[in-house]
Amino acid sequence: MKWKYYLGALLVFVVLLGLYVYSLSGERYTYHIPFSPYTITLPLAIWFVIPVLLFFIIIVCLRLGGIYRMWRRENKYKNDYKLLLEQIENQLLDKKVSLKQPSMDCYKRLSILLDNLTFGVKEGVLAKSGESRLDELLEILGDLKKGKDVNLKRFSLPNNSSFMRQNTFNQIENDEKFALEVLKKSHFDNEYKQAAFKKILDKGATKDIKHFLSEVKMNKDLADTMLGMCYAKKIQLNNEEIAKLCKEVEYTKEDYLHLAQKIKKCYEPGLWVSLFENLANEDEKAEMAYFYVLLDLEMLDEAKERLNTYPQNEFLKIRAYLDLKSVGKKYPLELFLLD
């Protein structure tokens, strides 16, 4: 019931009570205030009305106290619920923030349980919860997982956040112009530059490849892709550039050997020999691959001459292969190449 109805009912009741008492007796009554020389003289009807008013004031105070307690409890629920939503958002975004525990015990226990969990976004269509900020975040993270570039600015993530990094990788993958911008600007770290360079390689933008080669610290995947394009004649690298590339990504003995086997059909014998001679001179790890090229082409004299520059206890399998070859024995060359 609204307060105006309470006040209206009280006013009517007080007026009727006062009139009724006054109709019975119009006398006045004097009240001596305890421990004081003062007195109060009022009509008898007023003295009957005063307790009713005092009782009403007490009821109003109790009612207001109850409303205040309900208001405080409701605010606690709202604040605790808001804290839980913030906690879910922070955990979804992997934000390293201190846990703010709710004030109410039921929410506090729930907060601790949530803190022990790791959240992720399931695939497929997501049901709407009605919490617009979290619904938007879940949709964004789902799109991010699908490889789309999204807008994460409103969630105030640091640049080194895994989600910000993934979003940058997605943007590189989806936008060739942005990939070129990444290669041009120095503030992007090498992982971004590698992804951007891979994008340029995949798109076959051969005019940009050599231009940005010095901007990227290469890895084996990029080197393999570049060398694949080289022996497919999509780009041209001279022997020195190939040797520098292989050495930069720290090709192993096995890597050089696999490279020799891959480009066997793509290179003319003379170019094949020249390339691996250069590689072996630049990096001793390519020596076995060079022997493979020489022996595969039956250049036995050149292989023996090269072998004589090493101590007798090195390249024993190559020596064994040549000895067997000299007595007419034939075995697959690959058996003698790797340990």
Descriptive overview:
This is LapA family protein. Keywords: Membrane, Transmembrane, Transmembrane helix. With 339 residues, the chain is an all-alpha fold. Among the domains are: 3-92, no CATH class; 230-339, no CATH class. It is 63% helix and 3% strand. The protein is built from 15 helices and two strands. It has helices spanning 3-24, 44-92, 105-115, 132-145, 162-174, 176-184, 190-203, 206-212, 220-231, 239-248, 253-262, 269-282, 287-296, 300-307, 316-326; strands at residues 28-32, 39-43. A two-stranded antiparallel ribbon has the order 1-2. Strand 1 (28-32) and strand 2 (39-43) form a beta hairpin. The chain is rod-shaped, with a radius of gyration of 44 Å. The model has no long low-confidence stretch (mean pLDDT 85).
Summarize the structure.
This is LapA family protein. With 339 residues, this protein is mostly helical.
Quaternary assembly: single chain
Report the helical percentage: 55-70%
The count of β-strands is 2
Main β-sheet description: 2 strands, antiparallel
Proportion of beta-strand residues: under 5%
Structural shape: rod-shaped
- Secondary-structure class: mainly alpha
Low-pLDDT parts are none
Query: What order do the strands of the largest sheet run in, or round the barrel if closed?
Result: 1-2
Instruction: Give, in order, the helices and strands.
Output: HEEHHHHHHHHHHHHHH
Please count the helical segments.
Answer: 15
Distance between the termini: 93 Å
The radius of gyration computed from the alpha-carbon positions, rounded to a whole number of angstroms, is 44 Å
Rounded mean pLDDT is 85
Organism: Helicobacter apodemus
Keywords: Membrane, Transmembrane, Transmembrane helix
Transmembrane segments: 5-24, 44-68
Protein name: LapA family protein
